[in-house]
Design goal:
The structure is a single chain. The chain is mainly alpha-helical. It has one domain. It is built from 6 helices and 4 strands; from the N terminus they run αββββααααα. β2 and β3 form a beta hairpin.
Length: 162
Amino acid sequence: MSAPAIARSFHENLARVGYYEAPWGVLHGDCTSANMLMDDHEREVVAMIDFELAHLGPPEADISFALWVNGRTEQPAVKLDADRVRAFVTGYHRVRPLPASAARAIPLYLIGRGLQMHVRLERVGRADDVQMQRLQWLHMHRALLEEAVASALQADISSSTD
């Protein structure tokens, strides 16, 4: 499927996932492990750095942007790992509970991130086959990602980590 066809599908689905009604806030825009400061003793994130890409949007979009990197087992990978997606969303959900609609929104916003990356590279004349393969994979495996996120949302958020 072409990038324009994926973009049309993405835009058609925004209303279906509640994008236009979702509460918005300040998003980090690059909430990856490279921008998280960790407390070695507590093994938890204590701060975020590098707010160059900060912008407004629904919180689920920031999760998607983080999963663009953190959802892969290695940087050059095309596909996302469902277990990594599930673990990341579970951890987020324990700290800041997400609505059930996040199960559909996060995978769709991942496609949006892929479109953003594709267009960014196209504009500077560096179209990348890997980015296109990632975008196509996300589009074709959206249901798999929805299942992974839905299972994370069903995790017992009242249980705390020891």
